[in-house]
Design a protein that fits this description.
single chain, 340 residues, alpha+beta, BirA Bifunctional Protein, domain 2, 2 domains, eight-stranded mixed β-sheet, elongated, binds 3,4-dihydroxyphenylalanine
Length: 340
């Protein structure tokens, strides 16, 4: 009787579609070995017939399965070959002539690394947010003139309450979400984009990068806030930065501050070390009780924490001495590469 092992061994040696077809003709085709054996079986006495029939069926099934598996693997091989032939090698043209890191991305990554090393949780959040998230959850009532501080871009899409979504005008719109998601105490960072309906000029763009930070605990003071901001600025600007705090108004903090910074630098004209001008670098303050309440946190228990909103483009512009922030996003490689 046909030897299954031998047939399988022959199948294993098959290397192409033509040989496989040959194998099929020899073994599995209607005039092949197996059917011939069935024919012989029919001539056997009854008791032998049964036994032989079962064995032959078993051989036929196993061989068919092995044949089909081989056929399948050839098909995959053909597909892969085709794919390889059609492959467009997008990695081919990456000589340093044709790409560059974005300065903004570099600075953002630096800021992210600093806060990650201090165990801040980080999310980019969504750019499309509800009016509640963008305004009311951070204590800006929709009727309040403060809403006019932002020229908001409204979207056609509606949120579940039937209100139009907005493109977030500030990363503060993620405060409510982060507090609800992670609870208190909380150290959280939300870097990424925000949008405003602006007339574009050297210091304004409709899309810009911000970093929102929050630190909520039980004994957090303004001193903690100031020292964390200094740590971060020293690390990003790679300079010993001197900060000054002025009062500033933002509905989501009380008291609110503007932080100004100055640092020593080498004046290229005089060749001497000088102190820079004071630069308004970032706003922040102690989180307003209404913001905590809106996120379901009891302000009597947790009213100690700060938030800040860092303008990435501004920080990057200060770091690299760039006068026009539109350079960051216009994709001009001559600009980006001059800092590589
Ligand atoms: N959301 C403010 C803006 O876009 C920035 C800001 C100010 C964020 C003070 C804060 C803060 O968290 O405390 O202008």
């Amino acid at each position: 009787m046909l030897d299954l092992k031998h047939a399988l061994w022959e199948l294993e040696k098959v290397v192409d579609a033509a040989q496989l077809e040959n194998f099929f003709q020899i073994y599995l085709w209607k005039k092949g070995f197996i059917n011939e054996e069935f024919k012989v079986m029919l001539t056997l006495p009854a008791e032998e017939k049964k036994d032989r029939g079962a064995k032959l069926s078993d051989i036929k099934t196993k061989l068919t399965e092995a044949y089909e598996a081989k056929q399948q693997s050839f098909k995959m091989g053909q597909i892969n070959q085709q794919l390889e032939k059609d492959l467009v090698d997008i990695s081919l043209d990456t000589s340093s002539e044709n790409w560059s890191y974005s300065l903004l991305a570099e600075v953002r990554r630096e800021v992210e690394e600093i806060f990650k090393s201090l165990w801040f949780v980080m999310e980019y959040g969504t750019e499309m947010v509800t009016k509640f998230e963008n305004f009311e959850s951070v204590n800006i009532p929709l009727t309040h003139p403060a809403t006019e501080m932002h020229d908001t871009i409204y979207l056609n899409e509606k949120d579940p309450s039937g209100e139009n979504f907005v493109l977030r005008t500030h990363t503060s719109s993620m405060q409510n979400y982060m507090i609800k998601k992670y609870g208190v105490p909380l150290k959280a960072l939300v870097p990424w984009r925000a949008y405003r309906f602006e007339n574009m000029d050297a210091t304004h763009d409709t899309m810009f990068y911000q970093v929102e930070g929050m630190y909520i605990g039980k004994n957090i003071s303004i001193a903690h806030f100031k020292s964390l901001m200094e740590t971060m600025l020293n690390a990003v600007l790679k300079k010993k930065v001197e900060t000054r705090m002025r009062p500033g108004y933002f509905p989501f903090v009380e008291p609110g501050f503007e932080i100004d910074a100055r640092y020593e630098y080498l004046n290229p004209k005089t060749g001497k070390k000088e102190m820079s001008k004071r630069l308004e670098i970032l706003p922040g303050g102690m989180i307003h009780p209404e913001v905590l309440k809106a996120a379901g946190v009891d302000p009597a228990e947790w009213r100690s924490g700060f938030a800040f909103g860092l303008g990435m483009s501004r920080l990057a512009a200060i770091k690299y001495g760039i006068k026009d922030i539109r350079y960051f996003t216009n994709g001009d490689l001559r600009f980006a590469k001059s800092f590589a």
